[in-house]
């Protein structure tokens, strides 16, 4: 028995209805062959098949099997068999994933080597690396739940935090899985995810917790996949000091994995349950549930939704080549083509097309008024199909005139560059996409205010529209730049006008000043003659006074030089003393710095080399804030 792939299906299964005419044809051929000769009514049926033999019958008997095989292969090829997906880069995955990890003391059980905790953390790292799409968060819980990592696209962040997790760093001992799942649900809800996946890695739950867990899983909109860690036989819990965990009565605690309860919870959560395995089959089973589900894309157009598959139907046509070669040799293909050609009607041409038909065109052939579209194809296409042909051929002018659908017509006008017409066409849509496209066209047309208003309407229809938000911010920034440029131009014009007025004022003042300049020159000439005579008499008196003063200054300078030499010697002694004191102070400061550095090194040696130290302190502070806000839970397990 041939095993088919798990994803094997047909893209167009309705083509199998074409097998009904084949069955009818085979039945008629058999009836016709049975009555082909007149001996059927004369010879008994049990003797007829032995008496009517020959080469003619053996040759004609091959026609029906070949026809049936050809028909069957053709129908299967047209039905589109496929089993392989094609990557779709046009989709941007926005799926949210949260990993919920059990950090109760029961994870120290040794029924799985080396213990449940180590194997669970290895599986968690493999699961994070396997889920390569969307955002991933990490939540750990024991007696209380804490966010270890918020939602992030960087898998290395979670891989760096997972090795440091252990039950000993949890501030509250016990096991309260409901708190962990609720906290994971809050992470996805606050991030805006309406669909998402929770991956719960645990070694079991208590019977008293089943009702609360069932109520949560029935209400949550997210799927919950569960990985069970442990065995049904269980094993003691080995603590870090080497001792086994015991109850108050002295008996050893042996936690066991109740796979049935976890499987029931996974069904209620709409997810998958898997038990821990030595290979990666368990995490692949969990990740396959959400691999192609719960996706939100940036493009919400229904035409772009769904999966793309690699079709294997064309390869089946290769099997028809030997049959076609045999049929060609027998002349069957030639007869078939002749019969089809004679029975097909010639497409009629309209009266207007015949009137506008050029003389060199073949008789009966309609005129082709759309470049790139064959004349024989146009009568079989409606207006939108003709517009699509022109659009695909980048003939956007012809496409916009042919399209009747407003969405396609607006797209063709936009690609043509007629942005004003495109904006008017998109104005017919009262949807988020319609206002978004209208805003794009208005922005291209330079109507920035109208474009911003269109983006606002799109955001009113769909608040979570990232493209509309980005384009609106871009247009607003562009509008601010234009306003700033206009303001600068206006300021420049005002400055030019002010400079021009100042230049005119200066020219007028200069002209007035030139008329009084001649009169001032004459007065200055008379005054200059009088000053020359006075200066000559004063010059002789000043020369005598300067000579006496110079002799007196030379005596005073000699006294000052002697006093300055004494002061310099005194200052040099003081500087030498200060330099000695500074060197002594630097030595003392160096000794103090060495002592301070030595004390810091001693303090650093006392800090424990624990990568989970910060996580522990963070969770302790958060637990202290919560202890007065939440009553104690009686259903919480002690381990």
Automatic annotation (TrEMBL):
Region of interest (Disordered), residue spans: 287-307, 348-371, 479-639
Low complexity bias: start-end ranges: 348-367, 483-550
UniProt entry tagged with the keyword Membrane: yes
Alphabetically ordered keywords of this record: Membrane, TPR repeat, Transmembrane, Transmembrane helix
Domain of life: Bacteria
PROSITE patterns according to UniProt: TPR, TPR_REGION, VWFA
Spans through the membrane: 15-32, 62-83
SUPFAM superfamilies per UniProt: TPR-like (SSF48452), vWA-like (SSF53300)
Domain VWFA: 96-241
PANTHER family assigned to the protein according to its UniProt record, in alphabetical order: SPORE GERMINATION PROTEIN, VWFA DOMAIN-CONTAINING PROTEIN
Name recorded for this polypeptide: VWFA domain-containing protein
């Amino acid at each position: 028995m041939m095993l088919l792939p798990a994803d094997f299906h047909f893209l167009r299964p309705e083509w199998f209805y074409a097998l009904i005419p084949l069955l009818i044809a085979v039945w008629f051929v058999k009836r016709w062959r049975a009555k082909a000769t007149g001996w059927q009514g004369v010879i008994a049926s049990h003797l007829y098949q032995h008496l009517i033999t020959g080469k003619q019958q053996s040759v004609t008997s091959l026609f029906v099997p070949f026809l049936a095989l050809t028909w069957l292969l053709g129908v299967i090829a047209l039905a589109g068999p496929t089993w392989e997906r094609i990557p779709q880069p046009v989709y941007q995955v926005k799926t949210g994933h949260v990993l919920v990890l059990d950090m109760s003391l029961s994870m120290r059980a040794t029924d799985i080597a080396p213990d449940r905790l180590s194997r669970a953390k290895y599986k968690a790292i493999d699961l994070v690396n396997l889920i390569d799409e969307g955002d991933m968060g990490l939540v750990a819980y024991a007696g209380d739940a804490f966010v270890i990592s918020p939602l992030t696209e960087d898998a290395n962040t979670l891989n760096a935090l997972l090795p440091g997790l252990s039950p000993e760093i949890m501030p509250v001992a016990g096991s309260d899985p409901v708190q962990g799942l609720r906290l994971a649900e809050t992470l996805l809800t606050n991030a805006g995810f309406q669909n998402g996946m929770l991956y719960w890695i645990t070694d079991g739950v208590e019977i008293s917790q089943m009702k609360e867990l069932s109520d949560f899983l029935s209400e949550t909109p997210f799927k919950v996949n569960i990985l069970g860690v442990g065995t049904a036989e269980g094993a003691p819990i080995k603590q870090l000091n080497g001792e086994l965990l015991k109850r108050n009565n002295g008996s050893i605690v042996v936690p066991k994995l109740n796979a049935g309860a976890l499987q029931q919870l996974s069904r209620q959560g709409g997810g998958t349950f898997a038990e821990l395995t030595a290979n990666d089959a368990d995490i692949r089973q969990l990740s396959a549930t959400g691999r192609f589900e719960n996706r939100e894309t940036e493009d919400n157009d229904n035409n772009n939704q769904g999966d793309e598959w690699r079709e294997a139907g064309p390869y089946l046509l290769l099997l028809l080549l030997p049959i076609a070669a045999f049929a060609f040799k027998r002349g069957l293909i030639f007869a078939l083509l002749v019969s089809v050609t004679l029975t097909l009607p010639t497409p009629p041409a309209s009266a207007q097309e015949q009137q506008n038909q050029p003389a060199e065109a073949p008789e009966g052939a309609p005129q082709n008024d759309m470049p790139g579209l064959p004349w024989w194809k146009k009568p079989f296409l409606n207006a939108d199909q003709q517009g699509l042909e022109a659009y695909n051929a980048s003939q956007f002018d012809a496409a916009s005139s042919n399209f009747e659908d407003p969405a396609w017509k607006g797209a063709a006008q936009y690609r043509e560059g007629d942005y004003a017409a495109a904006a008017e066409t998109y104005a017919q849509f009262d949807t988020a996409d319609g206002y978004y496209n209208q805003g794009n066209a208005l922005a291209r047309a330079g109507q920035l205010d109208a474009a911003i208003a269109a983006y606002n309407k799109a955001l009113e229809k769909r608040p979570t529209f990232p493209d509309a938000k980005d384009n609106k911010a871009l247009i607003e920034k562009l509008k601010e730049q234009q306003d700033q440029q206009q303001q600068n131009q206006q300021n420049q014009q005002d400055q030019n006008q002010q400079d021009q007025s100042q230049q005119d004022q200066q020219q007028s003042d200069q002209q007035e000043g030139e008329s009084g300049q001649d009169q001032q020159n004459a007065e200055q000439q008379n005054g200059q003659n009088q000053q020359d005579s006075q200066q000559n008499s004063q010059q002789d008196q000043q020369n005598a006074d300067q000579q006496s003063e110079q002799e007196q200054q030379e005596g005073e300078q000699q006294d000052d030089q002697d006093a300055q030499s004494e002061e310099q010697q005194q200052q040099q002694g003081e500087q030498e003393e200060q330099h000695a004191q500074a060197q002594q102070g630097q030595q003392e400061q160096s000794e103090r710095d060495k002592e301070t550095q030595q004390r810091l090194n001693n303090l650093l040696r006392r800090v424990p080399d624990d990568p989970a130290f910060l996580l522990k302190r963070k969770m302790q502070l958060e637990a202290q804030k919560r202890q007065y806000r939440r009553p104690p839970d009686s259903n919480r397990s002690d381990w």
